[in-house]
Amino acid sequence: MLLRSLLFIGLQSFAVLMALLHEYLGVATDEAKYLLDIPYPHPPLIRWILGLSDGWQYQELFWRIVFSSLLMHCIWLVWDMGRVLTREQRVTLCGLWLFSGAFLLQAGTVMMAPVTAVQALCLCWMLTRPDMLERWSAWLGVLWLSMLFTAYQGILFMPLVFVALQKAHLPSWQRWLAFFIPLGLLGLYTLTNPLAIASMGLAGSMGVGIPLAESLTRVVRIWMLGGGLALGILGCIGMIRSRNTPLIFAFVLLVTYVFLSFRNYYAILFIPLLIAGLSGIHGRSLLRSSAFVLALQIVVGIWVFLSIPFPERSGARDVGAALRSANVGGTVLIAGSFGHEWQYELPGPVRRYRPELLQESDAVVCLQPCGDLGAELWIRLADASEEIWLRK
Amino acid sequence: MTIEMMHPHNRLWAVFWVSCALIAAALVPRAWALRLLYTDADTRQRTRLAMEIVAKREGWILSDVQLREVRWSGLRIIHRQHTRGMDPETCYNFGFTDLVLRPCDS
After folding, report:
1. Which pLDDT tens digits describe chain B residue by residue (106 residues)?
2. Cα–Cα distance between A38 and A6 in angstroms, integer?
3. B38 lies within 8 A of chain A by CB
4. Helix (H) or strand (E) holding B78
5. Residue A179 near chain B (CB below 8 Å)
6. If you measure CA to CA, which chain A residue comes closest to B44?
């Protein structure tokens, strides 16, 4: 009991530390999109929940801690999934979850991919518990619906959901409806949000025109980022040796998805599948040298964490602070290219700069030259990190 | 209500089906209001063009504009400025020919 309590405190401290690191780095454009409930590209469930708290000063830190804690405490599920392994191998399995490069890079971010990874791990865990699956199959339906309405990538795990529903011993009509109705609802939601369709088209065409070899290299890189060297390889071997068809099918879907839209943050989606591949009976032989495997995972994970640069901090937070200290609360015009983090950090509504809109605004931020604003009406804020003009 | 229905497991299935029904009830009218976008290529093209022109003219960020209704003659949109706290939100109608914004309640 004492050991569990200490472990819990340790994990929670790690979660808070990761959240604080990302808080220091500032809000990324995608994170701001979710925190403000901006309606694209993903379905609304989680971003709507996040958006309810966007007036709260500590919203960002709070959700970073929540997301990071969810990822950390998944090791309790990982521990349970490794029931057929020895104690040492189960510890290794938990270590493989905690020290994969993607985990270290993404714990503490407010993104949808880590949430989907947690949901996918829950799904993989449910599949290892047929007794519970039979008794509490409704949770499977709820999880499937929530996965799809969290992010589109939830659809990649449909082979696992399909098999889990088969194992739940439900009447056949209920199995089929529970599987297809959420998919239909997602399709219907997509029709109501043309912006989501447009952004999916953009994301899906990322790989167009890129040589095959380069695309494959990127896929391998993201897979390695997800699993690290040890989990990436052993997880796949375990998956194949166990002939776990739904797991392999979900893995192939994920690889195809990453091939079409290679973003580093999809790496975390590999981890639950790889853990599931390694947690079965074949994990016993694959994790024979478990201490070496864990050591390798930790070294590679930390190396990835240190070698992949975090995105550069945007000037939005400093500009927001400068505008607040100047008591600006009205519309701010921004000249030049900017991300959603500017909407998050600035004290008032943001619009794109156009000279005709000057009358309706209180401040102008010039990320590119604004031209002459008129010295009789506008005064430049001194000592600001960006060029900021305030209405006199 | 039968004893079987009162079992927590069945109640959770009921929550699932009711959630699905509520989501469908919320989405069907919205999808129906946008049907021209998917059934008429010309309207789709005019909508895209009109949204881009209006957003550029008003300095709006495109993701702040939600399409609510597509008609043969024009569009109904909601401009929601995403900020911390309450988001200022205004509903507008405009025609494809003049692109003049008219508040929905006028």
Report:
1. 455 555 666 788 899 999 999 999 999 999 999 999 999 999 999 999 999 999 999 999 999 999 999 999 999 999 999 999 899 999 999 999 999 999 998 7
2. 39
3. yes
4. strand B74-80
5. no
6. A194
A380 Cβ under 8 Å from any chain B Cβ: no
Go through chain A and tell me how many residues it has.
392
Q: How far apart are CA A350 and CA B79, in angstroms?
A: 12
pLDDT at position B7 is 65
Hey, are the CB atoms on A348 and B83 less than 8 Å from each other? yes
CB contact under 8 A, B9 and A36: no
* Dist. CA B38–CA A246, nearest whole Å: 34
What number is the ipTM of this complex? Answer: 0.91
Write the secondary structure of A19-32 as one string of H (helix), E (strand) and C (coil): HHHHHHHCCCHHHH
Conformational region of residue A187, where left means phi above 0, alpha means psi within -120 to 50, and beta covers everything else: alpha
- On whether the CB atoms of residues A345 and A324 are closer than 8 A, the answer is no
CB A94 within 8 A of CB A71: no
**pTM score, two decimals?**
0.92
Instruction: Write the secondary structure of chain A as one string of H (helix), E (strand) and C (coil).
Output: CHHHHHHHHHHHHHHHHHHHHHHHHCCCHHHHHHHCCCCCCCCCHHHHHHHCCCCCCCHHHHHHHHHHHHHHHCHHHHHHHCCCCCHHHHHHHHHHHHCCHHHHHHCCCCCHHHHHHHHHHHHHHHHCCHHHHHHCHHHHHHHHHHHHCCCHHHHHHHHHHHHHHHHCCCCHHHHHHHHHHHHHHHHHHHHHCHHHHHHHHHHHCCCCCCCHHHHHHHHHHHHHHHHHHHHHHHHHHHHHHCCCHHHHHHHHHHHHHHHHCCCHHHHHHHHHHHHHHHHCCCHHHHCCCHHHHHHHHHHHHHHHHHHCCCCCCCCHHHHHHHHHHCCCCCCEEEECCCCHHHHHHCCCCEEECCHHHHHHCCEEEECCCCCCCCCCCEEECCCCCCEEEEEC
Cα gap A147→A59, rounded to integer Å: 23
Distance from CA of A131 to the nearest CA of B (A): 14
d(CA A57, CA A37): 16
Task: Catalogue the long-range contacts made by A173-181 (C-beta closer than 8 Å, 24 or more residues apart).
Answer: A174/B13, A178/A140, A178/A141, A178/A144, A178/B16, A179/A144, A181/B20
Least confident of A69-78, A300-309, B72-81: A300-309
CA-based nearest residue to A155, from A243, A254, A239, A10: A254
